[in-house]
Specification:
The protein is built from four helices and 22 strands. By secondary structure, it is mainly beta. A twelve-stranded mixed sheet has the order 2-3-5-7-9-11-13-14-16-18-20-22, with helices on both faces. The chain is elongated, with a radius of gyration of 24 Å. The two termini are 14 Å apart. Its main location: secreted.
Length: 415
Amino acid sequence: MASHSFTFFLSHALILFLLHLALPCYNAAAKHGHSPSRHYRHQAHHSNPRLYHAYIALQAWKRVIYSDPRNFTTNWSGLSVCNYTGVFCAKALDDPKIQVVAGIDLNHADIAGLIPEELGLLTDLALFHLNSNRFCGVLPQSLSNLALLYELDLSNNRFVGPFPSVVLSMPSLHYLDIRYNEFEGSLPPELFKKSLDALFLNNNRLTNAIPASLGQTSSSVLVLANNNFGGCLPPSIADSADTLEELLLINISLSGCLPPEVGFLYKLRVLDVSLNHVEGPIPYSIAGLAHLEQLNVGHNMMTGVVPSGVCILPSLANFTFSYNYFCEEEGTCMNLTSKGIAYDESHNCLPEKPFQRSEKECQAALEHPVDCFQHPCTAGFRGPPAFAPAGFPAAAPLLSSPSLSPSPSPSPSHF
């Protein structure tokens, strides 16, 4: 896929647009059950109670910031919160006569601290960006009050604990990025039922099988890489065909065969299942993915024939199937250079091709064929490999660091 970079600049115009998108959920703010403002209600006489609540929240936050080497919060004093660095105000949706705090952008501030319960007072917040800081601890449940929040970027911090289920209570959330943290445990099935446009979960400590609800995702970009989920890719992934364009499952201990339902994802441009324990053949259904630009099945235990239908895909620009046990290439697959496709076919069992596995390794694979119909791929399956893999990497490389300014439509170069 052609490399392109998306740069997100937080502006008042964009905040107003996102607030407009969140308008149907505005009245829901009062229905959330967490109230961190217990002893601030007497301040209702203030000329703008919402900005006063924002002042209370930001002052509470400043008190639990332990390091701010770039002095982002130096001017966080006084009631004029709209002048605070990284704080953006806009007209309230329900009352254009008053200003409210609609966005916070502290990307790359290198701040160390916690997220206090009082941030739940920022009920007009539409964007909350904390990419590349040193915030730690767990997210308070009071954040469920952020009924207008459209984008939440907590990437590249030090947050811990189970998956932050508080995000499930944010009705307007469309963009969630929690990559490069220390979240652990299972993913809640409800996550994939939310109306998210992009979902980045990579480089955490998440475990257990991917929920079967995966196919209910509305995301165009879904990145689960560098976790330890295990199990198979649920066949329900086919249900996301109308939206899914990029699916990255790199190094997640995926096992079993790739389900043929992958070939139903007709909008898919990027599919990467490398560095796993996937067995069996490349599903021939992938030959129907006319928009597929990048396909990476490298570093698995796949066998059989590399199908010509995949190699003649009209948009294919990069095809990696190295470090497997493929024994034959059909048609055009034998000469991908002629089609201008970048490829890596090394460390397979391809006759008369350079840099292949030894005869002993290949024979072991041939003696233990995989029948995917006998072992259908279902979520939670952790069957043993059909044969002991040889040459599998001891440790998988991490994905690259998060982009400086993540956007709602990132390219794989951001991963």
